[in-house]
Fold each of these.
Amino acid sequence: MHSSNQHRAGSPYTTQRIPGPKKTWIASTIAIAAVAFGGGVVVDMWLNPSATSGQGATASGNSDMTVTGDAIQYRYGVIQVEVVRAGGKITAVNMIQSDATAGREQAFPYLTDYAIQAQGSNFGNLSGATFTTEAFKQALDSAISKLS
């Protein structure tokens, strides 16, 4: 009679541990996870550079004031904004000049909302309005830089 810890000659079954590589899958799994995470960060930085790089102006200070930024000329018109700060926060972004062409002015209500939510120009582009978004951000940054 054979004990359960032994195997019969010619039997494909065994209870003995077969020597081999010890947990090399852990190192490869960690390496793959690190590359995947790093790749995700790089893609996010590429798709949304202002949000990840810390660029973009934000309103700071506690005094209430209203300032008007420079007029920004871009390929579809001119954008100039006024920023209202109350209680240390941007409470309104008003369009002073917004003569964008071919329906691009439809982006401005969204952009002003995004600016107030982000408390500055640190938000992503509005899909289909990349040039208008970038010009709006420049106009917004110009106004915010005048807040003191």
Note: Strands lie at 65-68, 72-74, 77-86, 89-98.
Amino acid sequence: MAPSPLVVLDCDSTTIQDEVIELLADAAGSRERVAEVTERAMRGELDFAESLRERVATLAGTPESVFREAYERVRLTPGIHRLVAAVHERGGRVGVVSGGFHEVLDPLAEDLGLDLWRANRLEVVEGVLTGRTRGAIVDGSAKAAALREWAAASGTPLTSTMAIGDGANDLEMMAVAALGVAFNGKPLVRERADVSIEHDLSLAIPLLEHLG
């Protein structure tokens, strides 16, 4: 009998259809600048940590009520519920690791029934965003480390792991996993992925059978 799978997904533009930083930036009036920096980072033209700091700085002075407003606008990607259910039916676990933010990922994880999740945290002082993050930044290396850590903690061999993402900062975790899946991937990601799928995450369910 094959070991139970571990499937780790990126959050923004993979688990959900949105980029959370852009939803937050709408309230701060910095959407256009943030979107431009996001796109450059996803193409691999900018260091992720640097681009994150640049984008978060545009949120300074925004009230923390923006987190709830952003979450209410999140659109789930088609097929995510079916994929989570399929992994759980096989006794496996689903994790989401995000260059986005815990303040939005936490309620999302609860709603989706995720087993594991990790993201950046935004600094809030007296109810207002400072434009800075707290703690270590979740970048491509941190995503790969999370996949290894979660696999080891559950006794799941790497041969039973799948990583799904769309951007350059997902490549390291996709390389660590037995199966790296590009979902609506940028050209570089599609080129390096083992498999590419589009539009519906349930298309990843048959791929579970290929995990050892």
Note: Residues 24 and 70 are 6 Å apart (CA to CA).
Amino acid sequence: MALPEHEVHLWRVDLNGLGQDEALWQHVLSPDEAERALRFHFAVDRRRYAISRGVLRTILGSYLTSRPAGIGFSYSKREKPSLSPPHSDSGITFNVSHSGEVTLLAFTRKRDIGVDVEQIGRKSDLEAIARRFFSAHEQEQFFALPAAERGEAFFRCWTRKEAYIKATGDGLSLALSQFDVSIAPGHRDALLATRPDASETARWSMREVSAGAGYVGALCVGGRDWRLRDWTGG
């Protein structure tokens, strides 16, 4: 497959639809990935990990015209993966997220990128989490909603914030209160403000993406001169 520099490709994978046997994907995993898969206590987690990594390698292998098992990864100090030499010369960047039985994979070239997916309905005190981690503006949006609408709104906000910190590569070292996102459904320009450098906002594109029934997803990409090619089925 071709991956032009001005495109971002987004893939949605139904992990359950790809079967229950993670062994089918073991042949494309690296030795360290196969070892990590075995460390998962629950079989469902081993299966989800093996399939997600196997699909990631398969798609990358198609872009790179390379054997999936021969692709190497490097990791930043915040554990963000990237291609290692010689494949790093391709300029391909990517990010992966999974929740429940859904994995989202995003690919582009020569741009920072982050993607996140969350399954709606986690049994937690969402209002307490919002008070702790959402910015003042996000809390204002959130608590202005009727109680019945706050569950889905919480996960829209959370995925957008996760996509941004994954794109920047800072992970949770970046305080979640240092930037504002919209929690409105379907928003295609969802990064509203960044602090202390307000100009950072214009460097990024953030939008809601399709993740399937019962899930919400968000994508954050460096720059604005790109178009999305979407294989999520949404």
Note: The mean pLDDT is 91.
